[in-house]
UniProtKB/TrEMBL annotation:
InterPro entries: ABC1_dom, ADCK3_dom, Atypical_kinase_ADCK, Kinase-like_dom_sf. The keyword RNA-binding does not apply. GO terms for molecular function: kinase activity. Belongs to the protein kinase superfamily. ADCK protein kinase family. It holds the Pfam family ABC1. It comes from the Bacteria. The lineage of its organism: Bacteria, Bacillati, Actinomycetota, Thermoleophilia, Solirubrobacterales. Residues 97-331 form the ABC1 atypical kinase-like domain. The keyword Membrane does not apply. Keywords: ATP-binding, Kinase, Nucleotide-binding, Transferase. This is AarF/ABC1/UbiB kinase family protein.
Length: 466
């Protein structure tokens, strides 16, 4: 069984404080000793110290669960250039896997949370309730149940004490980020820390997640190939989220299906997440394989809307301008807009053509016209260009940062790309991107035509999908 979640403020602060103090002292020792070592030996020892720090961060965050786990999951999308190159992807994978190491809490304890929030006995609300969870995440477990009126529902229940643990983690996050800064010197940790606190604080409140899910369900009502489970508002509270139960199979069950079927699902995933961003201004931070269900009627059901951000229209338009400039081969426009949005802290120190080439290489999968199949090898190849020390743009990338407004956008884009690679999906991704960025662009696929017809009936034309 997983270790008990430390819920006291003192206990969790001690965990963070011990990690930071111990590693801080060891970094000082390494840097002092390196003054008397050869450059080669100093680099070797620096790499060992960075790897030790990385491993301890993973271990401590994994033990603490709650917000600490979520911080680790978000950090998995950031490149840590001081971690030895051969270990970097393994480290990031460990951070990402914190989601799958969620604690399994005995149902007796979960039942107390459920009945406290429902203000009554479980049997008063549900005719049947399967006590074996069907899913577990960093702050809660999901169960299947049947209401007295015969509806099949999914019931997400928050772990007891996790709210207090998360709130303490958020207060303590500033203790952790000096270590993160050591591993990624170019990162604007203050902005990232603030964004994490805002987003994770919201994720803790299932009533906010319910609001997000209802908004997404409204936006995709009647959609030809997307399904969003309906929220049971009357039964949902801050720590309990009850939604419609959707029958279907998980990601693993479709990953080996014929190419045509995988390609169709890949296009649906792309259209959903980018459509949600461009039409509804919502960046979804969890395009994870575990958050999609493939239904018998060929639709895709999307789950988990806790980690989300409403992106201001003005900022989102700035992101679109970068995309349009890339499509137009406008290197000056790309550079200028990156500076305006804050990706380039000192724009004049970044050569225009180098920045343009960097973004073209990182976005090659959707910037190059024509059909392209995304494979795990392609994902690794592009991710290496986007973050590896072997990348010709690596030194420049170390001095760049990610604006807080873009953190979940970049996370969404990167995780979606990885998921499409796992699916080995193919499409003309460039054509799909142009639909999002250029007003009046006619869809080039049957799914696109179906979505356009639905959008025309569901709402007035929205210009450049704003």
């Amino acid at each position: 069984m997983s270790p008990k979640i430390p819920t006291s403020r003192l206990g969790r602060t001690a965990k963070f404080g011990g990690l930071v103090a111990g590693q801080g002292a060891r970094w000082v020792g390494t840097n002092t000793a390196n003054r008397f070592r050869s450059d080669e030996k100093a680099d070797e020892k620096l790499g060992e110290r960075a790897m030790d720090t990385a491993n301890e961060i993973v271990a401590q965050l994994g033990q603490m669960k709650g917000a600490a786990m979520k911080i680790g999951q978000v950090l998995s999308t950031i490149d840590f250039e001081l971690v030895p190159e051969g270990e970097r992807e393994n480290f990031k994978a460990k951070l990402a896997q914190l989601r799958d190491d969620a604690p399994r809490v005995p149902f007796a304890k979960m039942r107390k949370v459920l009945e406290q929030d429902l203000d009554g006995r479980m049997s008063d609300v549900f005719a049947a309730f399967d006590e074996e969870p069907i899913a577990a995440a960093s702050i809660g477990q999901v169960y299947r149940a049947t209401t007295h009126d015969g509806r099949e529902v999914a019931v997400k229940v928050q772990y007891p004490g996790v709210a207090e643990a998360v709130e303490t983690d958020l207060r303590n996050a500033n203790l952790l980020f000096p270590l993160v800064k050591r591993l990624a010197p170019g990162l604007d940790v203050k902005a990232i820390a603030g964004e994490l606190k805002d987003r994770i604080g919201e994720e803790l409140d299932y009533e906010i997640e319910a609001q997000h899910q209802r908004a997404v369900a409204r936006a995709f009502r009647g959609h030809p190939f997307v399904t969003i489970p309906a929220v049971d508002t009357a039964l949902s509270t801050r720590r309990v989220l009850v939604t419609e139960f959707i029958e279907g199979v998980g990601f693993a069950a479709v990953a080996d299906r014929p190419e045509a079927e995988r390609d169709r699902y890949g296009e649906i995933l792309y259209r959903f997440y980018f459509g949600l961003l461009n039409r509804e201004h919502l960046a979804c931070g969890d395009p994870h394989p575990g958050n999609v269900i493939f239904t018998p009627d060929g639709k895709v059901c999307f789950l988990d809307f806790g980690l989300m951000r409403k992106v201001p229209d003005e900022y989102l338009e700035g992101e679109r301008q970068i995309g349009r400039a890339l499509l137009a081969e406008d290197a000056v426009g790309v550079h200028r807009q990156l500076g305006v949005l804050g990706y380039l802290p000192d724009p004049g120190s970044f050569p225009v053509d180098d920045v343009h080439a960097q973004l073209k290489a990182a976005g090659a999968w959707y910037l190059e016209p024509g059909f392209r199949r995304i494979t795990p090898d392609l994902v690794r190849e592009i991710m290496e260009v986007a973050g590896s020390p072997r990348s010709p743009y690596f030194e420049a990338m170390r001095r760049q940062t990610v604006p807080a407004e873009a953190l979940l956008i970049r996370r969404m884009e990167g995780l979606l790309f990885a998921v499409l690679g796992e699916l080995r999906a193919g499409a003309d991704w460039n054509a799909l991107m142009r639909e999002s960025l250029e007003p009046g662009t006619r869809p080039t696929t049957e799914l696109g035509e179906a979505e356009a017809a639905w959008a025309g009936r569901a709402r007035p034309p929205a210009g450049a999908v704003a």
